[in-house]
Amino acid sequence: MKKILLLAFLLAGCTSQSSLFIAPDGRVARCAHWGWGGYGTTVAMMNQSNCERDARMTGMIQLPEAYAGVALDFKSNKSMVITEVMEPSKSVGVQKGDVMRSVDGVAMSVPWDYMKAIAKKSVGDIVNIQVERDSKPMTFAVKTISREKMND
Hints:
There is one protein chain. This protein is an alpha+beta fold and 152 residues long. The chain has two domains: 2-62, no CATH class; 66-149, Pdz3 Domain. It contains four helices and eleven strands. The chain has helices at residues 2-12, 39-57, 89-92, 111-119; strands spanning 15-22, 28-35, 61-62, 66-67, 70-72, 82-85, 99-103, 106-107, 126-133, 136-143, 145-146. The longest helix has 19 residues, at 39-57. The two termini are 35 Å apart. Mean pLDDT is 74; it is low at 1-16 and 36-45.
């Protein structure tokens, strides 16, 4: 019983936070801190701030909280073929193999364009995704969800 109380006391003082960043080539970096409160947390938060500053200086953007449910192939960095479709895009009709042409009327030529467009959105925003399927243009209105809810 004493061990359980000690563990609960230690965990109650523990804090953590993290941010994900993505580079134009698809590399992902995590800037995180955790601490026990007091000075340790302050130092950890400074390290996280430095990590985030460095990530931005190298051209990375923070992975947006808003999520539209579309995956593109970052390895080729040329193809705008949708490689995976999840909610919320799946329920409005976006399909694997569709070729993304624009987001909210802005032309998309590389996957990085898509990431920058989504990074400007908030959870609950409507994103108009125009794709080409069988040589026909199609537009889908996708309401973004929280990245945390993408696996629900």
